[in-house]
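Morning!

As promised:
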Amino acid sequence: MTLHTLNKHTNNLVQLCMSALAVSDSLLLFEDGVYAALVNAELQQNFATLPASIGLYVLVEDLEARGIEGKIPDRFIRITYRQFVNLSLTCSKVVNWN
Amino acid sequence: MSSFSIIVQGAPYSSQAASSALNFSKAALESGHSIYRVFFYQDGAHNASSLVVPPQDEINLPKSWQALINTHKLDAVVCIASALKRGIVDANETDRYALPASNILEGFTIGGLGLWLDATLNSDRVLNFAP
Amino acid sequence: MISEPQKNRWLFVTTRSPWTTSSAASCMDMVMTAAIFDQKVTLVFCNDGVYQLLAGQNGKACGIKTLAHQIPALELYGVEHIYVEQSALEERGLQERDLIQPVTPLPYGQIQSLIAESLAVFVF
């Protein structure tokens, strides 16, 4: 069970990260990675097809900074840095896609 | 309580990497966990410069790292190859290469990639913050 | 099949061209360090990282060290497995004969099991 973190929203990297997600993994979008989850963004469609078993998270601080708190689908769970710390411990390792 | 190691690969102000790494480190420590090592790699070496002067309305990232390092007695290592290439040197390297001055912030040390390997093997989790 | 992580198995995924940033070279340094310290290392070339494998590279023209010269040394350093993402080659109009040396294609989805069985995974 791996926590994947994605801090960019370039198409190639998002695709690569997606291909690396196993069914029990989690994915946290942070920094510019949060732009990938914007409702109606082309990239966002990638997340919609993921199995429900994959936990999807976004870092609140980065959403607020970018002014897009209201534009992210409900499936993404908003978490703070402290919850990010906890999440990293409930998973067996953390892989950052950058 | 768990132990973390943090890899910082971004220069201050060039990307969000150094700020994110600092925020995560603070959150981990505030939650009662420990940090085994912070390893500054590639452009991350610039976080250890004592010569950084940001505008007054911006956080001084190197000084913020230094405060965290000193408060929590953290092991903060700058990769030697990354540091030398970017002109981040301590007194030893200044002597070795006959340089006019050293500029590493007190609290940071210079070391090899073996310390990154050791950090990965000996921490519960490794977090990599890259630009 | 997803297996349990092994304590000395490391995975590196390199995704960038060797020329515009130092990221690819830094990945290579870490790969070699881990291999020198007797860790079991797997290196995967993905996305623009496949450009690192092209034969005939020479940085002299632009005054930059040629990272590709280190690729043949990976085996000497004890790097166990080297894979290339086949689709990344195809998307860039490249073929196996364009590469410095033969590299095993990584089957789609295989990266999940590589991640699962590794102690640590670093993406560059």
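The helical segments of chain C are 23-36, 73-76, 86-91, 110-116.

Hope this helps with the figure draft.
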